[in-house]
User: Fold this.
Amino acid sequence: MMKRRDRRQEILDLLAQGEPLGIHMLADTLTVSDETVRRELRLLEADGLVERIHGGARLAKSVEEGPFEARLHRDAGAKQRIAAAVAQTVADGDSLYLDASSTAFHVAQALKGKRDLTIVTNALGVAAELGGRYGNRLYLAGGELDERYRAFFDATARAYLAQFRPAMAIVSTESVDVAAGFTDYHIGEGEVCRQMIAQSRRVTMAVDASKFDRASVVAVASFAEVDRIVSDREMDDAYAGVSAGVEWIVA
Assistant:
């Protein structure tokens, strides 16, 4: 039987072909009931991934028109405050992995005053912000460019990144949930982030308040794998219960 998260990813893959699809068509393709499809579409809509239309759904414009550009401007003020707080935890000479998220791009901008950093990334925007300044050393994974994300996620990129053991991975995900942990909806991004979390000595999650209490389809990290959370949201009792030992910084 298809797992629920696999089903949601299949719906996204079908909608990614470009045309709106009806509930009956999706139900027939996935061999599930119309009501099951409606339930999954409601969750995908809540995550901002699809738009409901009469009798069906289509991929959300923020996904169709370029997830990176759309996310870069979404909640920009909160992300910039988070980025400034993350930068305060970084010292001159540190080694870092910065992911391909829009939040990491803001972090890169906030790190411009630091010196002698070693930066590992798969994101063109991060490389452009931090490469060639103040003695920084920058290592950019290559491979096939995902143009919509301005980043590299394929096997060539993952093989290149396998060489590095940075002191800190700075990662952001699309969703954070007490039960599901940190999740994303881009399979390649999730795979690269999982790899670099495992290879880094410490992990900082930079996530704004809009991402909490949601679960996407691709697992990235559990709370046990994270050392620090930087957010514009206060830690409440529910998250305190699953993040014992995790430093929580409110930006």
User: Anything to note?
Assistant: The CA atoms of residues 182 and 221 lie 5 Å apart. The longest strand covers residues 202-206.
